[in-house]
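Deliverable D4.2, example record:
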Amino acid sequence: MSARRIVIAIDGPAGAGKSTLARRLAERLGFTYIDTGAMYRAVALWALRQNMDLTDAHRMEQLAAASSIDFRPQVILNGEDVSAAIRTPEVSAAASTVAALAGVRRALVARQREIAASTSVVMEGRDIGTVVFPGADVKIFLDADPAERLRRRAAETGASPGSLAGQMQERDQRDRGRAESPLVQAPDALYLDSTGLSLEEAEEAILRVIRAKTSNGKEFS
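Output generated by the structure prediction step:
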């Protein structure tokens, strides 16, 4: 494998399957997997524990800058495994609010770029190919129809689809409509609708793109 550091950016809405696919791809390629959404969730969790005002932009930026977030592959916040704690509905809602703050995004984007400066990464989120790494080697915009995204999120969280429908619609509106780094498809990103695809099929489709763009099919198996 080439020593050149490679960045694979996967963006898309909630429930599209980004985290699962990005994790599988990173393992397949021997790259580092970075779940940027987990970083915002971790900051939101810490803020909730501190009873902080999530709309206080200055204090939230300070909190984000002071946080220590690692992937081992568990999500480690300030030395504590918070992999399960960051997946509650309360933290999900808080993370969406926190992620809209420009200062928080600046602090965490700087951290994300630091990681990619030292190793090849598969990084997923909402603005990886547009803001964090506009020069990424491969950009994928992963999508699925709303009903399928809702089904996947319900399976992931154990909640009923009915209880999640309103939350997901609100999340989509916030992600796409926020002033700071909204969710949009980068012009040079490949659009992949995973609605009718198995995990294996979606993974292979993305791997074909990675091989074509980074090595003419010779570098990765």
